Amino acid sequence: MSMSSNSSSGELHRALDWKGAFWVAAGVPPLVLFSIGGIAGVAGQAAFVVWILSMCMGFLQSFTYAEMAGMFGNKSGGASIYGATAWLRYSKSIAPLSVWCNWFAWSPVLSLGCAIAAGYILNALFPIPGADSQVVLDWVAANLANYTETTQAVVDYMAANAGVTAADAITAVATTDAVSALTPTIRVWEAYALSIPGLGTLHFNSTFVIGALLMLIIFAIQHRGIASTASAQKILAVIVLIPLFLVGIVPILTGSIDMMNVSQIVPPSVAYGGDVGSWNIGGWTLFLGAMYIAAWSTYGFETAVCYTAEMKNPATDTFKAIFFSGLLCIVFFFMIPFSFQGVFGAAGMLEPGIVDGTGVGAALSSMVSSSNVIVQIFIILMIMALFLAIMTAMAGSSRTLYQGSRDGWLPKYLSRVNEHGAPTNAMWTDLGFNLFLLALASDAGGYFYVLAISNVGYLTFNFLNLNAGWIHRIDSGHVHRPWKAPTFLIGLNTVLAFVNALFLGAGAKVWGYENALWSGVVFAALILPVFWFRHYVQDGGKFPPEALEDLGLTNGDLGERKAGIKPYLALALGAAIVLWANWFFVLPG
User: Fold this and answer.
1) Domain spans of the chain?
2) Transmembrane ranges (predicted)?
3) Is 345 left (phi over 0), alpha (psi -120 to 50) or beta?
4) Residue 94: exposure state from Cβ atoms within 10 A (0-12, 13-18, ≥19)
């Protein structure tokens, strides 16, 4: 199967067992670090319950994906590819939409992870001094004589803060100037900022430069193929997940959990407000918004079935890979948010460094030890944890592009494989897209905007794919399934598809962007002209022979529509729930 490096197409190498796929998917537990602060901000005291409920949904849903993965032993690219084939005979456009939505949900892990990692590196090497630090106090003492009651900044401060004394105003202004003067230049350096109407501002700053370098390092590791990626992941996972596990378990064992912090499960009165709210429409909107963003992390272990075509024995390995990845995620997504909230409380989790992700390492280390050395070790571990998540994302998302190309849904150039069996053109595409996103996410506002839009794609993919489970049962019941989910679970997961539609409609607006849902819909629709060109212009309206061979269909035959109008009714009901939820649920006032 080995290909020469200048080959225009090729095959992935069967080099993995289920443990290898498990280790590649082991980058999912650190995704808790991406949004633990954001979810605490919108769910308040209910935050840890959001994580547990969301993880339970993700685990149940994975059984539908595991069954479908077993049907396609010759494909890579994950659940979206396997589910998309169910929709093909009902609409050619929905299949590429599902694949595209899955890809643009997973791919931003690269840019968001690199943005947080860059923040950690900048904080470690070029810290911004605290207002109460000795260097700031020394600067103030040396320069205080330069400020008087008539200094313009002091006058403005007193006007903005009624009742403050002149002496206090002078000290406050001098302290602000000291922090600014002592902040390393690299922290405020920006080569260029480009504003894009309707989208945001691209910041080409120090975060962007460091993040781009990190991405290139990860690309170099993956260039050597899935086997070397899996072995690198295994080492990283052991180094990262053991301390992360200790952070979750130590506070429980030592009695550091304050039960007041994990009782009275009520959303806050407003997002990022410390006051307890109630279960009114505003409270439910915040709770559903938290469920919406948690799904992006907790459902993510479905990436374990991205590597079917690279498994030595896909018939038995696919189920084991996703099942054990799910169990691993249950441990982390149940325990870490519970311990985190139990120690810090809803108010403590609203610290700026926790909300933007860059202070999570120091906070986690303080749950285990007060030693400064431990803090530094944890910050290094957090950077490695982000690496682990980014490696997982690049490996999975590039294979989604690769298989989408092989199956005739995405541009042809994406199906090129190098001599190590790595889909390099798809990886370069991932890299280019994420450099753009990294520029957008290089400030805190843009970070959550990228997350909110990418999640529109993720829940759209989950909705289409959970419905694909029962469509495959009806249309392709004859196809051998090495592992078959209990029928009641296929039914329950179909109900959960519509629960996800509810999260999508209500939740997208919670993250500070009224139009995040519509931005996501527009972005999802971008694939349609790309697909039409590939399918109707390049391929003459026919799918490649291999696209449907796993279903026993050849010569462009899409098979009989045994499910009748049911798939169309499911789509209509899903759209209706999204629109109703988006109208009905409003943020507290």
Assistant:
1) 20-128+188-584, 134-182
2) 21-42, 48-66, 99-122, 202-223, 235-257, 277-301, 321-340, 373-396, 485-504, 516-533, 568-586
3) left
4) middle
pLDDT of residue 3: 32
| Greatest alpha-carbon span in the chain | 86
Query: Do the Cβ atoms of 497 and 467 come closer than 8 Å?
Result: yes
Rounded Cα–Cα distance for residues 379 and 124 (Å): 8
Helix ranges, 16-78 (H): 18-25, 32-43, 47-71
- 358 by Cβ neighbours in 10 Å (0-12 / 13-18 / 19+) ranks as buried
Residue 33 CB partners (closer than 8 Å, separation 6+): 116, 357, 360, 382, 385, 386
Question: Using DSSP, how many helices (H) and how many strands (E) does the chain show?
Answer: 23, 2
- Name which of 212, 229, 223 is nearest 114 in CA terms: 212
| pLDDT digit string, tens, across residues 316-333 | 888 888 899 999 999 999
- Mean pLDDT value across residues 474-496: 93
Cβ pair 375, 367 in contact under 8 A? no
Residues paired with 201 in a beta bridge: 195
Beta-sheet pairing, 190-196 with 200-205: antiparallel
CA distance 364 to 349: 11
Which tens digit of pLDDT belongs to each residue from 233-290?
888 888 888 888 988 998 999 988 999 998 889 999 888 877 888 999 999 999 999 9
> What does the alpha-carbon distance between residue 506 and residue 290 come to, in Å, rounded to a whole number?
10
Which CATH topology does 20-128+188-584 take? Amino acid/polyamine transporter I (1.20.1740)
Taking Cα atoms as reference points, which of 449, 584, 588, 572 lies closest to residue 506? Answer: 584
Distance CA 206, CA 186 (A): 6
Other Cβ atoms closer than 10 A to 183: 14
The region, left, alpha or beta by phi > 0 then psi within -120 to 50, assigned to residue 34 is: alpha
Pick from 53, 54, 87, 55: which is nearest to 68 by CA?
87
Question: What is the reported pTM?
Answer: 0.85
Residue 10 has pLDDT above 70, yes or no: no
Predicted pLDDT of residue 558 = 76
